Fold this protein.
Amino acid sequence: MFAILVCATTAWSQVRDQELLDRLETQLDALSRDIAQEYLDILESLQDVIDDYADYMTQTSADAAAHRVEGVERIQRKLQEKVYVDNPEALLEDLNSAINDIKAIETAHRVKFNSNSPSCCRLGRSLRKELVIIAELVEDYSEKQSDRVLKRDDTRKYLEAAFQYLAALKQPKNSAKLNDEVRQALEALKALGLDDYIIAYPDESEPPEVPELPELPELVEPPEAPEPPVVIWEPRTGKFAGRRGAEHEAQGQVSVSGSSLPIVVENPSGDVFISGSSSKTITASLRLEVAASTHAKEQDYIERTLLLVAKEDGQYTVRIDLPRLSDHRTELINCVLEVSVPQANPIDCRSAFGKVSISDVSGNITVSSSNSQITIERASGGAAISNSMGPVELIEISGDIEVKNSYAPISITACTGAMVLENQYGPITLTGSEGRVEIENTGPIEIMDHDGNVTIDNLYGAVDAENIRGDVIAKNGYAPIRIRDVSGSADLENQYAEISAKQVGGSVSIANQYAPIFVESLDGPVDLSNYYNNISIDLDRGFRGGSTISNTEGTVNVTVVQQPNLVLSVYVERGNISSSLPLTVKTRDDVKSGELVLGEGGDRLEINTSGGTIIIRGR
């Protein structure tokens, strides 16, 4: 009768928990319910990972002390105490602490066993990667600033009840591991015809169900670029259409005594053309055209326009002072400033609503502009450019380069020096250049024939890099990363879009989620991980170093094109192994494993999957 009492109590507890949960759920508004459910899904995933860890520690008592992770056990205790129910920040902190604890264990074992990937750490690595995924989910969730809703009393009570109900659902599965005496009691009850009073527990020999692929979140559409302002130098329409305004020209010059003082060039509304020369004189020319309701007003505007060319306050100044347009019927049709400067002086250009062209100078260049088309050519002192809603093009520039733009392209060609490029919703192209590059963007990025290390932080635009003589670090989201012919290492991270890497001479580290990974012609070592999608790797050249591939709910395709000297070790939990090469597969419970020696053996490639398939083909 003891077994009947336990089962009935468990069932009644589940019914009461369900009733409480339903009642609390009806008290939440739709937004709070969605926020709570999203967080509950994260907590449930974490609980599954912690349960797997607890089972491992119980079943492998001999190795338990070596693999005990204090940070994970701290999370286990706090989950039981419901500490995280309304505190995702505390959860994220503890997750990061646990991840660091596992890394410390892995580092100690690498030293102890003199191996980059000791087999004893295989499950620890899997645990770390699962915790990293959950930490990223918590971090993304926290960025939505949902803590105010979580801390509300009704939401917190709902989450506590939901978490208690989930624990009750798992209780029958845990109770299935009854001792022999209780099993004998159940058999006796069956013999007495009391089957109806016994709750059937799931058969332990059956593999657990593979979780369904989560729905992909809706892609965040980048905002549309704002409409550019009315460009005031365009031809007139309406009343003044067909008639030219009054034109005016002015010149000015000043001698330059040295190359240390900057030359500041200002045009508040129009084109600026600056060219370097061997002369020691600054020469400026202004061409102006204005239209108004009367010729007298046009002439008045011209007379109040000033071109200043002078030395003042520790700098040389070339500036256009334009009268304020108080009459909406007065239009500035054209305002062009051409300046010839000594080559060596620094240039500081300030403008708006026009073209900016600077060429053949050796001093440092600074441009502050907006709504401008900027072109700089043949300069050797570096450049710092700030613009918006207009293209920026740099050609044959040497020295440090910094460009900030938005809603328009940045193009760098044949430049040399450290580069920092920042854009929003506009493409960035870099061709035939040299130097360390840091790029931040929300748009397409293309780098071709570059000599130097490249770091990219991007969203919403494809990243393409080819023929890079250096290292590549790239992070993206919602658009592909494609690299080819990289002499150094590659560290790539993406989500919801593919990653492909071909012909990489150094180490390769790739992490992706919900989209495939394709790699070939790698020298190794590699560290590839994916979540809910496939990994494909071609072993088509010599492969060096200890390497790992891990996947969750996806297929790993390995094609052996040219046999390297490699030991291929495979491990699958809740999945299958298929090989056209001679591979002996061992099965224990729901775990399959095998080892394949390619060539003369040597370095190791370990492949681990959970809920997926490993396919090995020879070609």
Residues 2-197 form one domain. The two ends are 63 Å apart (CA to CA). DSSP finds ten helices and 37 strands in the chain. Confidence is low (pLDDT under 50) at residues 1-17, 171-182, 194-220, 225-243.
